[in-house]
Amino acid sequence: FVGKISYELYLVHFPVFIALTNLFKHYHLKYLDIAGLFTVFLCTLLMITFFRKGVQKMRSPKIWTAMALMIIGVSVLVLRAPANRLTADQNQLQSLLKENSSKASAGENQLSQEKKILFIGDSVMLGAYQELKETFPKEALVDAKESRQITAIPEILKEHKDLVSYQQIVIGLGTNGVLTDDAIEQTMSLLKD
């Protein structure tokens, strides 16, 4: 019996177990796996009953016309949907990032003898640029740009020639990408003083 429905079991098991895990993630039920197996078999039987046998009975031109109209309707809705509709918050954040980026790259962030803290970051730190400048008005140099990753930290540190003049260096970068042992060693050797 299982051999005859193995493909349907294959299609159903993953979504069912993911749904059950998400529904009951705060409960530690001993019998969740057994309930999951029962649910998989039940969904598989329903799928076989309604889809496999239902498709075999779909010889009526009305059903095929309705399906074609539904596919065309969904396609039109998908194609006409706005691609990049941003919310007001997203627009505000984008303008804030642009403003902070221009301030950070404009000469407002020049190194002086008073700078004691170096902030190196990505778009998150760029979004916090104003707060950092208000909190550390004369002590901080903020070097933040969008789309920076942790893998680029050795190159970013090499751009700052006088690392020893800072008392603290704060690094806040995204974690996408593979951080190799070599990159960690380079970073630590640049920061050793």
From TrEMBL:
<feature type="transmembrane region" description="Helical">
    <location>
        <begin position="63"/>
        <end position="83"/>
    </location>
</feature>
<protein>
    <submittedName>
        <fullName>Acetyltransferase</fullName>
    </submittedName>
</protein>
<keyword id="KW-0472">Membrane</keyword>
<feature type="transmembrane region" description="Helical">
    <location>
        <begin position="31"/>
        <end position="51"/>
    </location>
</feature>
<feature type="transmembrane region" description="Helical">
    <location>
        <begin position="7"/>
        <end position="25"/>
    </location>
</feature>
<dbReference type="GO" id="GO:0016740">
    <property type="term" value="F:transferase activity"/>
</dbReference>
<keyword id="KW-0812">Transmembrane</keyword>
<keyword id="KW-0808">Transferase</keyword>
<keyword id="KW-1133">Transmembrane helix</keyword>
